[in-house]
Every structure is written in structure tokens, then in C-alpha cells.
Write a structure and sequence with these properties.
1 helix, 11 strands, mainly beta, 7-stranded mixed β-sheet, 4-stranded antiparallel β-sheet
Length: about 130
Amino acid sequence: QVQLVESGGGLVQAGGSLRLSCATSARTIQTRGTSIVGWFRQAPGKEREFVATINWNGARTYYADSAKGRFTISRENDKHTVYLQMNSLKPEDTAVYYCAARFAPTHDYYTNIDDYDYWGQGTQVTVSS
């Protein structure tokens, strides 16, 4: 069973920063190999939307327009963890943030929800004005 565990969410004022983490186990990597990891978010009453994604070795990243210039996705494979550094946060960034993994990828990145196989439980990010 693949488990992804997000952490790092919280309450922050507009203009502030947060760093989200998405961790999996060494056993998952041993049994399933490395993966493409994506971050998505879902605000109340809205559909889940793509935020950022990173390929297996961190060489390729891709961002939604709303995240470009403010968010940075990175990974430390030796720690089996992917990060989302979020700077200059805005109230409209308020949402539950989810990480997702796609194993055995055939592309460098994926932006569609349906392209991901496993999801974390989500972490709440609230940005106050």
C-alpha cells in the first residue's frame, strides 16, 4: 500500500510563506520505484486544481500560472520527500493541498488529476488578509 503524508500546512498572513512536505516510505520506493509527484489544491466549493509537479530526479518542474514565481517544488529522494515552498501567499491560496504520485510514468510531468495513482490526505493552508 502506497502512503503519502502531507505536512506543513497552517494559518499564515498574506505575504507570508509556508513549506509543505509530502513524504512516502523507503519501502514504497523500493517496491514501486521513484515517481512523478504533483501538488494540487481544493478550495471550498471549487474543483481540485493543479499547482505544481516534479519529475523523478527533480530536473523537470511545471507550475500552474497561479503558482509561477511564488511557489517552488523540489524533492529529496534520499529522504523520500517532495516539498512545495510557497512564498508571497495570498488569501486566494487558501485551500486543502494534496500531493499525488504517479509511478511508472511515461511522461516527464502530469497536470491532470486522473494521471495520478495515489493521493495523500491533504493539509489545510489558510491565508488571512
